[in-house]
């Protein structure tokens, strides 16, 4: 294989061991071989050492491993973009199972339509259930994430899902990197990026043949065990997204919807203080917008 590969597979990882290793080996066993694979690891020292030793023993020149001290999913994605040389960039989570040997090929074939800038595949979630009956991936007027990627028909879709999404390199170079302002659990960083690619004039599609199982491992990655802490990140990210892409007018339905969510959480947890905490998180998202987006790709 000479020159740039057709496909760059990019896997950010944080404190995942065997699941990450299995995901990588599945990619390397796919029928489609014109690829490079970058693992961008942000793990703590003990897991970093284990990962480094494991990947050193994988005899495949297509595999590249890099470790970052800085944690953060958008930053890890941008570091991967900086290193990728493929015509198509495929992002996978580090806890997925590829259903078919032609998973990679399904992503690549979807780009035969020159108008396609991004593709999301079928995602069978192990623990997270769809919250809408039909195939969907978008943010409601009030800021709720509406997702059902269990469909079986190819179609245009508003947003891609980070566990299983690819972009044409031309589109990536056009819009820049992922926004590092999505911190913590990094909710909506994939939706933000999808929106920017669509605004740039590209079509996004759902390709059911590119199917995987998302294990949603309970530890590692961007998982947060504390319910209040998880909701704080959700409120912050959503406030930031709405203000960035829907303007001041978009804050009205967001305030109504998320005000109701905050009240219901406070009642469920019997914690009036939760109202204050969640309101503060929303305000933090609005302040982050005032500071400006951070979408730069590191120079190489």
Describe this structure in words.
This protein has 300 residues and is of the alpha/beta class. It folds into two domains: 7-214, Alpha-Beta Complex (Spore Coat Polysaccharide Biosynthesis Protein SpsA, Chain A); 227-291, no CATH class. Helix content is 39%, strand content 21%. It contains nine helices and eleven strands. The protein has helices at 18-28, 45-56, 73-83, 103-109, 169-175, 189-199, 227-246, 251-269, 273-291, and strands spanning 7-13, 35-41, 63-67, 88-92, 96-98, 116-125, 136-139, 145-148, 155-156, 164-168, 203-214. The strands form two sheets. Strands 1, 2, 3, 4, 5, 6, 9, 10 and 11 form a nine-stranded mixed beta sheet that branches. A two-stranded antiparallel ribbon has the order 7-8. Helix 7 (227-246) packs parallel to helix 9 and helix 8 (251-269) packs antiparallel against helix 9 (273-291). The radius of gyration is 19 Å and the shape is globular. The model has no long low-confidence stretch (mean pLDDT 94).
Task: Indicate the topology.
Elements: E1 7-13, H1 18-28, E2 35-41, H2 45-56, E3 63-67, H3 73-83, E4 88-92, E5 96-98, H4 103-109, E6 116-125, E7 136-139, E8 145-148, E9 155-156, E10 164-168, H5 169-175, H6 189-199, E11 203-214, H7 227-246, H8 251-269, H9 273-291
Parallel strand pairs: 1-2, 1-4, 2-3, 6-11
Antiparallel strand pairs: 4-10, 5-11, 6-10, 7-8, 9-11
């Amino acid at each position: 294989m000479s020159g740039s590969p057709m496909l760059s597979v990019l896997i950010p990882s944080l404190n995942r061991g065997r699941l990450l290793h299995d995901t990588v080996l599945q990619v390397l066993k796919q029928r489609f071989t014109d690829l490079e694979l970058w693992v961008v690891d942000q793990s703590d020292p003990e897991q970093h050492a284990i990962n480094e030793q494991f990947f050193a023993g994988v005899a495949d020149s297509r595999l590249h491993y890099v470790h970052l001290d800085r944690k953060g999913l958008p930053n890890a994605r941008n570091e991967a973009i900086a290193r990728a040389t493929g015509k198509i960039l495929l992002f996978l989570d580090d806890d997925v199972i590829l259903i078919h040997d032609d998973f990679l090929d399904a992503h690549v074939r979807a780009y035969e339509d020159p108008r396609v800038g991004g593709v999301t595949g079928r995602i069978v979630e192990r623990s997270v259930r769809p919250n809408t009956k039909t195939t969907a991936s978008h943010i409601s007027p009030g800021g709720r994430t509406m997702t059902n990627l269990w469909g079986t028909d190819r179609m245009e879709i508003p947003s891609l899902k980070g566990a299983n999404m690819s972009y044409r390199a031309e589109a990536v170079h056009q819009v820049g990197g992922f926004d590092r302002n999505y911190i913590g659990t990094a909710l909506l960083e994939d939706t933000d990026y999808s929106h920017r690619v669509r605004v740039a004039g590209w079509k996004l599609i759902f390709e059911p043949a590119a199917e995987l199982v998302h294990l949603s491992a309970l530890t590692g990655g961007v998982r947060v065990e504390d319910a209040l802490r998880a909701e704080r990140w959700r409120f912050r990210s959503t406030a930031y997204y709405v203000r960035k892409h829907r303007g001041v007018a978009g804050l009205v339905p967001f305030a109504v919807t998320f005000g109701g969510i905050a009240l219901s959480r406070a009642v469920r947890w019997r914690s009036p203080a939760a109202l204050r905490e969640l309101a503060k998180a929303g305000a933090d998202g609005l302040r982050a917008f005032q500071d400006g987006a951070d979408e730069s790709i590191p120079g190489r």
